[in-house]
Amino acid sequence: MKNPKISIITVVKNNKNYIEKNIISLLDQKYKNYEHIIIDGNSTDGTLDIINKYKKHFSHFISENDDGIYDAMNKGIDAASGDIIGILNSDDYFYEDALKIVKSYFENKPEIDFLFGTVHKFSLRYGFYPRKIYWTFNFYTTHSVGFFIKKNSQKKLGYYNTKYKYSSDYDLFYRMIVKEKMIGAATKKNEVLGYFNPHGFSSSLKYIDFLNENTQIRLDNHQNKLIVWIIHFLRLSKRILRVIKESKKK
Questions:
Q1: Are 117 and 101 in contact (CB under 8 A)?
Q2: pLDDT tens-digit profile of 77-119?
Q3: Domain segments of the chain: what residues?
Q4: Burial of 59 (0-12, 13-18, 19+ CB in 10 A)
Q5: Residue 10 and residue 89 in contact, taking contact as beta carbons nearer than 8 Å
Q6: Can you tell me the distance from the alpha carbon of 211 to that of 63, in angstroms, rounded to the nearest whole number?
Q7: Which of 7, 71, 181, 247 could pair with 67 as two cysteines, CB 3.0-4.6 Å apart?
């Protein structure tokens, strides 16, 4: 894979405060063989005015109602014409060397199906620990900004399952690593791809809804039920203790 074309999918709805920085971060990339795909969910806050300023730079742009963030990502996958697919949600942005780093890994490691890059998310997150997936989904850096996959491997995996509203990326990663046994790599600690905004979609989720869906993903993928429920109750207990501890400080 020499000079691969990279398809970047950005899903957005009513995010006028961040979308321009997202777009400019692609325009500033040192590696230029990419396409930017914008999937908008019928924004009404001025987001479309900003998008239209840069419309000539997109390979594909639609603005229409969708069935949530993962349905929009699936539309982006359908539109992608590159060799590699990456996700960059509208709150987030790349550093200028991001795609150059991604390109070098897929060129120099032709055996890999996917890549997790180092990302600034609260703190610096780096590495990839696939064995941890059996008891925690905290085994990688980030989905948006940090995750790239060969298009052929994405086709084999299929779409994000829209049954899951909060964590369909976890289901995709479980299938990718456990079921399909795909080969992945991680960038070095100092090869930072970009910035993940902690105030994005994931920050608005209720913990119990998030935990219940995580548990359902494991059950649907036929992980041992006893282990799944042990994980569930340990995580719930840890959360309750944390809430109690924080309440005592007030």
A1: yes
A2: 999 999 999 999 999 999 999 999 999 999 999 999 999 999 9
A3: 6-199, 206-250
A4: middle
A5: yes
A6: 31
A7: 71
Place of tokens 């899951």: 164
Q: How many angstroms separate the CA atoms of 91 and 231, rounded? A: 31
pLDDT category of residue 243 using cuts at 50, 70 and 90: confident
Q: Of all residues in the chain, what percent are helix, strand and coil, respectively (each to 5)?
A: 45, 20, 40
Report phi then psi at 70, rounded to 5: -80, -30
CB 16 within 8 Å of CB 47? yes
16-58 pLDDT tens trace: 999 999 999 999 999 999 999 999 999 999 999 999 999 999 9
Q: How far is CA 19 from CA 65, 80, 158, 186, in A?
A: 18, 20, 27, 27
Strand 34-40, strand 6-12: pairing: parallel
Instruction: Identify the CATH assignment for 6-199 out of 3.30.1050.10, 3.30.56.10, 3.90.550.10, 3.40.1620.10.
Output: 3.90.550.10
The answer for residues whose C-beta is within 8 angstroms of residue 57's C-beta and 6 or more apart is 23, 26, 27, 36
Query: Which tokens belong to 84?
Result: 């590699």
pLDDT score of 202 more than 70: no
